[in-house]
Amino acid sequence: MFRQIISAGKTQLVRGYATAAPAKAPITLFGIDGKYATALFQAAASKNALTTVESDLANIEAQFSKDARLAEILSSPMLSKSAKEKLIDSLGKKSEITTNFFRTLAENNRLNETSRIITAYKSLMEAERGIVSVVVTSAQRLGGKDLKQIKDTLTKGGLIKDFKEVNVINKTNPSIIGGMVVEFGDYTIDMSVSSRLAKLEKLLTDSIAV
């Protein structure tokens, strides 16, 4: 079963199947969601069940989409451990790995991270298949030519390498005013106007304070 070792500033999740070293994740993810998703990936890889777990998570995510209250209920500190386990079991048939994983999340009060963990696991599976997703956030939707230029810059410039496919996703956020924010893996390149204004405001504030 899953065993979790938590200490200040350090989280590890280990599947006690065997003494063999865990499979290496294709990319390094940070944060609580990244740590848990990586542990799940390694556990699934050790049992040749990566796609099985992927299917389990997709089904759970679909149910969350149909009923947003499910995620809220699972995250509630008012719900007992046994009640949460019953709710997890009611989310449909799942592999042993996935079931044990969610019970571990319940034991450690991390069910509120479920959606983020699923997203992180998707990133690991994409990387495993040689795909990297690049999220480009702009104030207005960018055209195909602009997105291709960004993709070419990242790949030819060596910022993204060792991947068979680069998937560029454009999201809009009017609050950044202009420019763009590029995110992939654990990297964030902030070239937004709002970021520049914030830096200018801080500079002015600091100058006045002096």
Helix content estimate: 40-55%
Strand percentage: 15-25%
**Rg from Cα:** 20 Å
Summarize the biggest pleated sheet.
4 strands, mixed
**Helical stretch tally:** 8
- Which structural category do the helix and sheet elements fall into? alpha+beta
Low-confidence stretches: 1-19
Q: How does the overall form come out from the CA principal axes?
A: globular
Q: What gap, in angstroms, lies between the N and C termini?
A: 58 Å
What would the average pLDDT be, to the nearest integer?
82
Number of strands: 6
Q: Please identify the oligomeric state.
A: single chain
Order of helices and strands: EEHHHHHHEHEEEH
Give the tags.
8 helices; 6 strands; 210 residues; disordered N terminus; four-stranded mixed β-sheet; two-stranded antiparallel sheet; alpha+beta
Give the SSE layout.
Layout: E1 2-7, E2 10-15, H1 31-46, H2 50-66, H3 69-75, H4 81-89, H5 96-107, H6 114-128, E3 131-138, H7 144-156, E4 165-172, E5 180-184, E6 187-190, H8 193-209
Helix pairs in contact: 1-2, 1-6, 2-6, 4-5
